[in-house]
Amino acid sequence: MDKILRIDMGAAGGPKISKTALGEYAGLGGRGMTSAIVSKEVPPLCHPLGSENKLVIAPGLLSGSAAVISGRISVGCKSPLTGGIKESNAGGQAGLMLARLGYAAVVIEGKPKTDDLYKIFINRDGVKISVDNNLKMLPNYDLVDKMKAEFGDKIACVSIGPAGEMKLSAASVAITDMELRPTRHAGRGGTGAVMGSKGVKVIVVDSTGTTFRQPKDQAKFVAANTAFSEGLKKHPVTGEALPKYGTNVLTNILSEAGGYPTYNFKVGTFADAAKISGETLAEVEIQRGSIATHGCHMGCVIQCSGIYVDKDGHYITKQPEYETVWAHGGNCGICDLDAIAKIDFLDDNFGLDTIEMGATIGVAMEAGLAKFGDAQAAINLVTEVGKGTHLGRILGNGAAVTAKAFGIEHAPVVKGQAMPAYDPRAVQGIGVTYATSPMGADHTAGYAVATNILKVGGYVDPLKPEGQIELSRNLQIATAAVDATGMCLFIAFAVLDQPETFQALIDMINAFYGLSLTAEDVAGLGKNILKMERDFNTRAGFTAAQDRLPRYFYTEPVAPHNVVFTVKDEDLDKVFNW
Amino acid sequence: MRRGFLSLFFRFLQTGFFLGASVGCSVRALLCEQLGLDEEYVLQRITTIFLDGKPVDDIDSAIVRDGATLSLSAAMPGLVGAAMRRGGAFASLRSSITANKRDVSVSRGAGFIRLKLFNMVMRELGPEFLKKGVVIRSPELVDFFKEQPEAFWQRVPMIGLNGAAVDRRMLTDGVLSLSAAEALPPGTPGYPRSGSWVRATGHPGAPAKRVEGVPFSDWMTLSVVSDSEEHCP
């Protein structure tokens, strides 16, 4: 990964391709790369859909190497949903293919002067960009079929569906998986709308003829990679729970804890949780002859995904994630797995963030557009978005816009972005991260990496309530660092409990790049990323007032524990004091 | 090997079943002494425990009252999954809902608790509970049968009710309520002696003990009988 591909969509005479050296961006990957470029090159006050914004697509530091589970790809820009900086990452095959082709980032800049729609083809021979207006308003699955027919089946696609073309703020960027299906999405923050504003429908990547990126120290890298892989396999979360049941294994737990937002965050437990739990989902998949253990990209050793089929064994969608099952399930009072799977397919096909759409449908249900629990009505509402009806365009711009349009106070958003599947009144620590993350309400912004192992911010007493601020700070730092590596965040669980696995990760990075990083250096990387992101948001006009939850989380208790969010504003303002 | 027959009924382990227990004891005492679970298994495997919906950090100080709901899980993913873990590094993130000693003032004695089993714990402990029989509400079982697709019935050829074989349509069409099962004569022809099948037993005439406000006579013991080697998912 020694170069950056830049495509100026607004250049005179048509899109202009250039390849530049890494320069000041050397040593960055994933979120580190996207946030550095956006922070440095995008005017913070620009319109997210204007020519000054840039869409940055970057594989992680270890993507394209033989490192296990290193295929995440980051997509960054100024977000049309939040108005701040955005990094959203996904699995799938594109990250590792771009990395093998030597690209540390693809930067799409400018804006075409016509309404032509472009496709970009990247392989080892170079880059081609061409107008293809036949692709207009194609859903992702149909689009990928067309690309397969044109370029063969050794490709990966980075694409937008109709939602991206309509520049809706809930639009995602889809990444194809190992089966060449557009099931992995950089979903959050409306990255798909920015891609749509650039007139780019799809980037087709073909890494045929390339090999794994080679480490500086092969022997040490192989040893560290083996130790890391074994660490993941032996841990009960990464080696058992996730492969068996996927992320949706959390449904029962969160509902039991009273932290499962139900009926648009009205209550914290869902009576029908067991009908849509990960345990039930896996059982249905297997009973129907499908698989409940599957990876989203080559080299994944956790295999937390699966394939969801109908009663006759026909493909519906990939195994929906916990967040998706919650958003379109419990949050809307829906307990029909087939319906939830169908909506997941629609989201993927139209190119929509499942969290934002589920939260939006919840708001719409509270507004009376449909009844809670009415699965067909939810399907109809998502279909409206895909069709681009007037109602669909309101819904496709997310929960905050929908709440405003229908006069609803209960919009579960921070910085305009919908909260994920954890009620911050029951789990207050995650509320701290929702409130303060530069990304808006985001559960992955503060994931579980070994706080005390990383030694960022000192040791935190796990049982002290006041430790929440420190924990959120340290987790956000650690998460930013992991997001830069291209590693799936789910490695965090093994790293959390097994110091030797965490050391193996650092050893792997060091062996690959010939470095001698320490845990403190990794934390430093995370801090730098957050600093850049916070700085961008400040220049975009964000203040402490945006680092707050909606007021009703402070005033309306959530059952069954009847608790409100109690973290003080002055404490929230300390999260980034390091 | 064919997929486990028992796993068809795992829903009841997730929604919870009832157990007679000596209450007023610690969670550890209930799990290890009354349910007979290996202490090492409890400490190493059941790393996430909820008592009445509250995450438990200390299994010695958390006391099980009559009518309590106890939920057992292995280690879970995600920040919140990790936060729920017993005494874990992220316990403070959910301190406002944590179970603690002062939550309960209970007396010792005989009672009922509701037990829920999730994920790996369900897979590992569930089959034995299902074979021995779990007490659930009759309507829950009827609703469950009504929801099942044809593929389910191809695998469940037989339902025995209080010693009598019953046609599934009698249940799913509402002709027969499970609590009325005692009206059937025991020993109806076709009652299986082997194979994989489902046995439900009503509790007519049981003491007027009420659990969660429901008369005990409206409850069933569901047993899943399987003489083939089980391979759970």
Description:
Helices cover 40% and strands 13% of the residues of chain A. With 578 residues, chain A is of the alpha+beta class. In chain A, the strands form four sheets. Chain A has a six-stranded mixed β-sheet. In chain A, strands 8-7-12-9-10-11 form a six-stranded mixed β-sheet. In chain A, α1 (30-41) packs across α19 (467-485) and α20 crosses α21. Chain A is globular and about 55 Å long. Residues 448-464 of chain A have low confidence and may be disordered. Chain B is built from eight helices and 14 strands. Residues 179-194 and 204-216 of chain B have low confidence and may be disordered. Chain B is globular and about 50 Å long. In chain B, strands 1-7-6-3-4 form a five-stranded mixed β-sheet. Chain B has a five-stranded mixed β-sheet with strand order 8-14-11-9-10. Chain B is of the alpha+beta class and 233 residues long. In chain B, a hairpin with a 2-residue loop joins β12 (210-211) and β13. The longest helix of chain B has 14 residues, at 119-132. At the A-B interface, α7, α8, α9, α10 and α17 of A face α1, β4, α4 and α5 of B.
Record field, number of beta strands of chain A = 16
Average per-residue pLDDT of chain A, rounded, comes to 93
Which sequence of strands runs across the widest sheet of chain B?
1-7-6-3-4
Order of helices and strands of chain B: HEEHHEEEEHEHEHHEEHEEEE
Helix coverage percent of chain B: 25-40%
Major sheet details of chain B: 5 strands, mixed
Radius of gyration based on Cα positions of chain B: 19 Å
Measured on Cα atoms, how large is the radius of gyration of chain A?
Answer: 22 Å
Specify the biggest β-sheet of chain A.
6 strands, mixed
Strand tally of chain B: 14
Terminal residue distance of chain A? 32 Å
Biggest sheet strand line-up of chain A: 2-1-6-3-4-5
The dominant shape of chain B is: globular
Low-confidence regions of chain B: 179-194, 204-216
Assess the beta-strand content of chain A as a share of residues.
Answer: 5-15%
Assign an overall shape of chain A: globular
Distance between the termini of chain B: 11 Å
How many helices of chain B?
8
